[in-house]
Specification:
homodimer, 224 residues, alpha/beta, Rossmann fold, 38% helix
Chain lengths: 224, 224
């Protein structure tokens, strides 16, 4: 069975790629160069996809800096740093990018329909301390309806299915799953900044580091 | 009130732009260069937007030829020509572009949230002889749920509303509405081909010509 995998090169999306492999899917990965703060994660996505043996890896280019609205697409908005997990859990953070997952899922849907894939894997996670609105189960369910009604394949045959295996897992559980599946953590990239080594202080680094520490494991990615 | 208008430069989208103006909206138009067969329609979108006095006109670039799947994004698939309205009504045509309206609405949603707009206007039309799955009322309703659940604005305040004023109108009724609103038909472009003058034989030209003829009106766009 063919599956399209939304692959950002981070911990979560790399895990779902390996999950799709374990589910015996032929994997077609897709990444997005949307003029985010750095392209380091795109290189990781390519390396992880290559390592996993994807059939094809697409990179779609567009510019979300046209209107900004996020710390990831507007350099005048600072990245939050050194926040505790508790602080992270309070509000929707400035790293929220308007409608990003809707855009990503739309392209994945188009790609999936064009190659007659049956599934789209996405690594969203509602328990992440992020509070992102477009990572929650009710949102994924709404997109599933769009997948069913908005395509020829959905109207005339079996709708393309959204698979979100991490949606109710804690970060530590995702790492445990990834370990079982053999995810090459050293090739992944989670840091929002994107220097030669991970910053260790942005929300994404802190969440990742805390989870590895809680499990008593070492994160093989080098930190500043 | 701010509104984002999906403006392709065709008859339908130009009409909804003028409808949004009539609804007293400040209009922000958005067009897409997705490597479609021609860029002629993008020029029309710009001209119509300018004429209508939009506050801002965005053009988002991306490449749907990466995977094709449509006569509009794959030159090896011929455009249907000289089909009767009856033939057009039979099936979902090869000009269907996988998930196109979902991609368009996703970007419109992102833009709308970034500028704190309250509405997104789209010129879909279920009675068009096209049978496109992503032009029907149930699909628009599903996207409305995504607008509500997939954004910060939808979760914390008033969801951005999708306005589809043409969805149940016939082509002749759209032209009558546009005439009332003062749409500059001469600046619009509907032809799928995109030469110096409209071909007159593609589905889009034939649908448009038939509607003008039925009303006893002359289409000011030059035809081959």
């Amino acid at each position: 069975m063919k599956a399209v995998i939304l692959l950002s090169g981070g911990l979560d999306s790399s895990t779902i790629l390996y999950q799709a492999k374990a589910d015996s899917c032929d994997c077609y990965s897709i990444s997005f160069d949307y003029q985010q703060r750095h392209r380091r994660e795109l290189h990781s996505a390519f390396l992880v996809g290559q390592k996993a043996g994807v059939v094809e890896h697409q990179v779609v280019n567009f510019d979300l800096r046209l209107w900004g609205g996020s710390a990831l697409t507007d350099d005048s908005i600072d990245l939050p740093q050194e926040r505790s997990l508790n602080e992270m859990s309070q509000n929707i953070p400035v790293t929220y990018v308007p409608a990003r997952n809707t855009i990503f899922l739309s392209f994945a849907l188009a790609y999936a329909e064009a190659i007659a894939a049956q599934r789209v894997y996405i690594g969203v996670n509602a328990l992440d301390y992020s509070g992102y609105p477009d990572c929650r189960p009710d949102y994924i369910q709404a997109m599933q309806e769009v997948f069913r009604l908005g395509t020829k394949q959905g109207r005339e045959g079996q709708p393309i299915e959204i698979i979100a295996p991490l949606i109710n897992l804690k970060k530590t559980e995702i790492i445990q799953l990834g370990n079982k599946l053999g995810v090459p953590w050293d090739l992944t990239w989670s840091c929002y900044a994107g220097a030669d080594v991970a910053c260790g202080v942005c929300d994404s680094c802190r969440l990742r580091l805390a989870a590895f520490a809680e499990l008593g494991l070492e994160d093989p990615v080098p930190y500043a």
